[in-house]
Amino acid sequence: MSDYHESFFKKYLFSTDHKMIAMQYLFTGIFMGLVGGFLAYVFRMQIAFPGISVPGFGIVNENSYNTLVTNHGAIMIFWFAMPVLIAAFGNYLIPLMIGCDDMAFPRINRLSYQIFLVSILVLLSSFLVQHGGFGGAWTAYPPLSAKAEYNLTPMGASLWLIAVALEFVAFLLGGINFIVTLMNSRAKGMRMYEIPMVIWMIVIASILFMASVGPLIAGAVMLLFDQLLGTGFYDPAKGGDPLLWQHLFWFFGHPEVYVVLLPPMGMVVEVITTFSRKKLFGYKTFLYSVFFTGILSFVVWAHHQFVAGIDPRMANIFTITTLLISVPIAEICFLLMATLYKGSIELTTPMLFALGFVVEFILGGVTGIYLGATGTDIFFHDTYFVVAHFHYTFVPIAVIGLFTGIYYWFPKMFGRMMDEKLGKIHFWGTIIPFNFIFIPMFFLGMGGEHRRIYNYQNFPDLNHPELFHLRQISTVALIVMLLFQIVFFINFIRSLRKGKKAEANPWKANTLEWVAPSPPPHGNFATYPEVYRGPYEYSVPGRKQDYWPQNEP
Amino acid sequence: MHHPPLANTRSATGINTAKLATWWVIASEIVIFGGLLVSYLLFRLHHTEWAQEAEHTNTAAGAFNTFVLLTSSFFVVLAHKAAEEKNGAKAARFLGYTILGGLTFMMVKAYEYTHEIQHGFTMFKSVFWSFYYTATGLHGLHVMAGMVIMFIVGRDAKKGRNLHRVECIGIYWHFVDLVWIFLFPLLYIAK
Known about the structure:
The complex is a heterodimer of chains A (553) and B (191).
Chain A: H1 8-12, H2 18-48, E1 53-54, E2 58-59, H3 62-97, H4 106-126, H5 148-151, H6 154-184, H7 197-228, H8 242-276, H9 283-296, H10 312-340, H11 349-372, H12 374-380, H13 384-414, H14 420-446, H15 465-498
Helix pairs in contact in A: 2-3, 2-4, 2-15, 3-6, 3-7, 3-8, 3-13, 4-6, 6-7, 7-8, 7-9, 8-11, 8-13, 9-10, 10-11, 11-13, 11-14, 13-14, 14-15
Chain B: H1 6-9, H2 17-46, H3 50-54, H4 59-84, H5 88-118, H6 127-158, H7 164-189
Helix pairs in contact in B: 2-7, 4-5, 4-7, 5-6, 6-7
C-alpha cells in the first residue's frame, strides 16, 4: 500500500482513486462557487447602485446583467452545490464509511469527473462567444430560451444547454456508481440500518436525481433542436407548447432541491451526534421521513407554475402536496433537536455550522409555506420574496453544508486539524452577513419588487429611497460575507501546512472512516474492518468510553 | 494491468456488481425515454389531426423491424446461455448474429428516413414529425451504441474473457428492444 507510486500526471489528473477524484470535485466546485459568488457581487452592485462601474468588472449593461443572473443560478446549483455536496463528499466518504478500498467502478468515476470538467469548460467558453453567455434565466423557459431574437444570446444559449446536459451525464455516471457501491461493497456485517446517515442521504439523493433528470434530458434535446434546427416542440406557432418545458424542468427542478438538501442533512447528522455524544434520535424515523420526502418531491413540481396558466384545480392539488412535504421535513428537524436534547454539546466549528444549518434552513422552509399556497404565491410570484426564500434554503445547503463537511472531515482528508479560533470567526462572519443579505429581500419582495429587473430607477413604484436602502444593506452584507471567506482560505491553507497533526480519530467518532489513518493511504485500510453495530452508539451505559466504534466487537 | 478494486468484487446483495449497474443504467434510461414518450402522448391526446401525419409512416417496414429486433434479442439470449456454459466462442458467434440484426434494423430505418424526407416529411413538417425523428433517432443511437458494445464484449468473449458481460449487454439489448415495442405502436400503428 505505502509503496504505491504514480507519476504526477496519473496521480492528479487521471487518478482512479476515489479520494483524489473527491478532491478534484471539491476544488473545482469551490472554484466555481467563487465564480458564482463573484457574479452575484457584480449584479448586486448594479441593483444597489445602478449604473456604477463595478470594481473588478466595469459598467453592467442590460445584456450582461441577464448573463450574470442566469449563470449565477446555474453555476451555484449545477457546478457548486452538486459537485461539492454529492460528488466530492460522496466520493470521499462512501468507500471509507462502508469500509472499502474504492468505488465499485473507479474508471467510470474518473470519466464522470472528466465529463464534469468538460461541462465547465463549455460553460466558461459560453461567456466568450459572440453576444455573450446565456441570459434567459437558469430555468431557461421557452420561448425566451428557444429564440435568439428574445434572449439575444444565440450561441451562449446553446452552449449553456450543452454544458448543463454534460453535467447531467457526469452526475448520472457518478450516481449509478454511488448506488451500486453502497448496495454491493459494504463491509462485512454492515446491515441496512447500520449504514451511516450521510451515506444514505448521498445515495438517496443520487436515486432522486436519476429518477427526475431523465425527462429533462429529453426536454433539453428538444430545446436544443428548437434552438439550432428550428423544430417547434415549444413553439405554439408551430403546434408546440411552451408549458411542456416548464413541466419537464420542474419535474426535475423540485426533486433537485432535495437532491442537494439530503447530503448536507446527512453531514449534519454525523456532526450533531458526534458533538452531542448522543445516539441519533429515531434512525428509522429519520430514514422513512426522507423516503417520504423523496416520493412526495415528485408530485409538487407545479407549485412553480401557479401563474403559468395551469388548471386551477391542478393548482389546488399541488398546494396540498407542497404543504404536505413540510411534514416529513419538520419531522427531520425535530429528530435533530431531539438528538441534541440533554446531550453533552461541544460547540466546535463543525458543530456551529451544523446548528447554523438547521436554524437557517428552518427559516427557508417556513417561508416556503407562503409560496406553496396558491393564494399568497400569486402575489409573491417572481418577487424578491421568492429569491429570499430559496436562498434561505440553498445557502444553508450549499455554503453552510459545505463548511460543516469540510471542518468535520478536514482532519481525515489532510491529516491535520483546522484552527478553531479562525473557524469560529469564519462561522460568525458567514452567518451574520448571510441574514443581512436575505432578510431585507423578504421586505423588498413584500413591497412588490420584481426579481428580474435590471434598473429599479426605471420603475417609479420601486424607486423609493427606503427600498434602495434595503437593497444597499443586502449588497454590502454580501460583500462582507464574501470577504469573510478569506478567513476560511487562510485557515485552510495554514492548517494544511502547519496545523496540529490529526490522529486517526480526533473527534472520537464511531463511523468507519475514523478507523483508517489520517489521511487514508491508497486502499484506505490496512485490514478491512467488520461492522458489529450501528453508527451512533455514543454514551452507551456501562461502557468506559463514551463512544463505541462500529468495528469494535 | 488494471486490477479491479476490492469494492468491485464484493457482493452484499448477491447480485454481480456489473449486472446491478446495468439495471441502474436501464432505470436511468427508462426515465429519459419515459419523459419523451409521455410528452408525446400528452401532445397526441390534444392533437387528433396527428393521425393523418402518422399515416405516412411505413408500418410494414416498422413491423419488419420489430421482427428483426425481436429475433436479435433471441440471439442475445442464446449468447447468454453459451456464456453460462463458458463457451466463449459460441457466445461470440451469437453476439455476431445479434449485431447483424441491429445492422439490418438500422438499414431499414435509413431507408424509411430517406423515403420520408424525399416526400417532404422532414423534422420540421409538424411537431409529430419532430417527435418521430427525435424518438426514433434517440432509439437508433441506442441501437448503434449497443452494437459497438456488443462487438467489444464479443471480441473478449471469443478469447474466453469477461464472460459475465454477455449477460449485461443482453439486458441492455432487451431494453433497446422494449423501447421499440413502445415506439412502434405509438408512432406507426396509432392512426
